[in-house]
Amino acid sequence: MARMISFGTPVNDAERWAFSLLADELPEDYILLTNVEIPTKSGQAMEVDALVIGEWGVYVVDVKGYIGRLDAGLHAWSLDGREVDNSLAKANYVARVLAGNVKHKIPVGVYAPWCQGMVFITGRKGEEIELEKHQGSLSIYTPKQIVAALTKEWGLTAPRKHQVTDTQKELVLETIGQVAIVEQRNNKIQDFTKLKCLFIQSGLEVWQAEYNPGEWTAPWLLKVLIPTQFEDSDESQKHEAQLRTEFQRLQSLSGCSGVPYCAPLIQDGEQLVLPIRMPRGVPLNVLESAQMTTYQLLEILRRSVSGLQQIHRRGYTVGGWTSNCVFVSDMGDVEFIDIKDTLSVSHDIKAYAQGFLAIAEQTKQPRVYQWYRAAIAGETTDLDALRCDLSALIDLGVCDTVPEKIAVTKGAVIDHHFVLEQFIAATQTSQFWRAKHLQGQYQCGVSIYSSVEATWPMLSNIYRSLAKVYHPHIERVLGFGQLPQSEELFIARAWEYGVSIDELNDIKLGQPIRWFTQLITGLQYMHQMDIYHGAICPKNIICNPNKAILVNFGIGLDIAASHYASQYADPTLWEVEGQAEKDLYGLVASFIDALTPGSLKGDLGQTGIIQALDAFDREWFGEALYDVCQKVVRFEISIQPGMSYLELFDLLEEDL
């Protein structure tokens, strides 16, 4: 794209189209002066359609919008049989005048650049023109050859060919006079000064500019619409409406993080301009995220999702998700410069997740990158959950800048907070340790589970929720996450004294009903929060003389793979039952299994559990409680919202 300086307004569509073509196609080191006047010795000025200062010479270009067949000779021209002016003769004359003016300007020892005339026959925007030259060397060209003639050595008519130096170019500009003033005038729109053209097509231009009202400057983008450069008025009106709509959209989103500030529209009769403050930072596609710390990446994600949420809450969507339209500053601020409002909210979130997935994966935080993967698959649109997770990770300070793989041994520090002190138990896929919280110096338990990548989204939802609620008979979650550079999941929980209900050697009268009542209250509380265990079994019920606690929501000692509680039930019924019904079944079946002597258990299927229940004394159990338990293990109970579990099992009077 050439450096274009307009001294006047094009007088017709042919000139306007020709100048646009030359500005677009000529190299960037070319200078294109349009509608410029060349002074003569007599003081009279001669107007030139275009003056091109190029690599091989200085070309005085006369633009003609002839349509039809042009026969051009050295002395006479005809268009479709009609005599027309010989424009080349005029252009050559002006070129000689310009050459003479330049020679008077040059110092001793400097040669004047070659100046020659040239005619550009445009036709109808490059079409409907046929040129016949009586001499092939005549400098008359159609759009197919004009750029090559201006940029190649063969287009020069000089006997000796020399490239134009920078000094010679400056001499030509000095001869024309006031070029810098005219260029500054052309590049000035109120208090905005155009610096660099970033995009130009038809009548649309995007400029990098600066705002300079006084003693300070600020970078801006100018979206410029020039109605006269469009092919027809309908196209011009369409783009004008789009630019006005964009201004209204940015005004409606004013104050949202992620949305650049825009100034009022400028309309001066010739053009419509939308000034937008230049976004800070660099586009997402050139961001050097590999050099950033985990916390910097998390901050970028948090600010991006906060900005997106604010835009959605105002009733708009981004839509423009190409990576060069999303900017990230050194402080982690994220701005969207192409807010189109063309997508639905769900599709906008999916496009957002695709754009930021690479950064999310770089954090090596499963709670983060699993959300982005799920959003791309269309499985979630919950921006609140993501923002809460990002804030928690940043505020708690639990992320390694360079995560290192942790060997699970005595003395290992998990999540910067928990040091492993005593190994308790293990299976093929899990370990349980007694640990100590480093800062608080209190005991806690840490469970470590292998190969849980596939179930991570479900587990993440459960334990994120558990970390925010409290019930004395539900495990208290202190921490949850994935060990670095591994697929091992850790859960840190408050230390609870006791053993699983099936390992109790001495059960006193009244304890089972008290434990059962406590767990029923905890289970109802969780269900009200839409949190379901899904794997209740004796191993997941920890008892001590005072209370029972339900642990291992969703996972356990090999429960993640087998769903331990489901072994009690008929597989067909288990598949169709609701989550609340499954949890109640698991709880009742676990107590029956733990309290039934081995000789009476039989198999652990549904029939065996029912037979074991039948062996109990109804009076010892309590008639109402016995009947409800029987219905539960037969899946004859349907849980309704708001139902009281204590009332259902006739336990309202029990002492907790």
Automatic annotation (TrEMBL):
Domain NERD: 10-121
Transmembrane segments: none
GO MF entry, a single one: ATP binding
InterPro entries membership: Kinase-like_dom_sf, NERD, Prot_kinase_dom
SUPFAM superfamilies, per the entry: Protein kinase-like (PK-like) (SSF56112)
PROSITE patterns assigned to the protein according to its UniProt record, in alphabetical order: NERD (PS50965), PROTEIN_KINASE_DOM (PS50011)
Residues annotated as domain Protein kinase: 418-656
The name this protein goes by in its record: Serine/threonine protein kinase
Native source organism of the sequence: Shewanella piezotolerans (strain WP3 / JCM 13877)
Organism ancestry: Bacteria, Pseudomonadati, Pseudomonadota, Gammaproteobacteria, Alteromonadales
